Amino acid sequence: MFRELNGAERRLSEYGGRVVVLNFWATWCIPCREEMPLLVGIQKRYAGRGVIVIGASADEESTESQIPSFIQEVGVTFPIWKGATTEHMQVLGLGTGLPVTAITDQNGHLLFRILGIIEKKDLETRLEFLLGDRHSPQPAALVDHISKAMEVAKAHPDKHGKEQGEGHHTHGGVGMEGASTVPS
User: What is the pTM of this model?
Assistant: First the structure.
């Protein structure tokens, strides 16, 4: 269960009949902040076709106060929920890194997962499939940009012998270009 910023309880099951793009993010996560304008654009473009974007914030109490100013700054018009945890993400097969996104169909079935920063083509391809006649081949159920970023970081250590991004983010992960680990 999640809560809106005003405290109201929310569940994914409330959105039956709609395609849901559930994005897990946090204000302290640089890649999350970078992809948020894309999600705002997706909501504007697809809302009339039965798609809803929901932002599930993994901010802890110490950073929750930053959520309202961030969503205002970016122009977020879709629901923002707070209280997202690694347990929520793991139940959906999303791991523990941020950002990650789950996409459910109109019947509430989880069909797609995107780990790491969303690329517009990856998201639009999956939304068009869900909103279309589904005669074209189904896109891959999993897009894993986190593992790709980690492989790049391991292959190219910095001048101090650390993997790229190591130690650059207080929450771990693969640094500013990749994922951040959500505190449990």
Answer: 0.83
Tens of pLDDT, residues 48-71 = 999 999 999 999 999 999 999 999
Calpha distance 51→64 (Å, rounded): 26
Distance separating alpha carbons of residues 141 and 20, to the nearest angstrom: 15
Closest CA to 38 of 59, 60, 55: 55
Other CB atoms within 10 Å distance of the CB of residue 159: 5
**pLDDT score, position 169:** 36
Compute CA distances 30 → 33, 100, 106, 170, whole Å: 5, 13, 31, 12
Distance CA 170, CA 125 (A): 34
Adjacent-strand bridge partners of 23:
55, 101
Residue 152: CB atoms within 10 A of its CB come to: 15
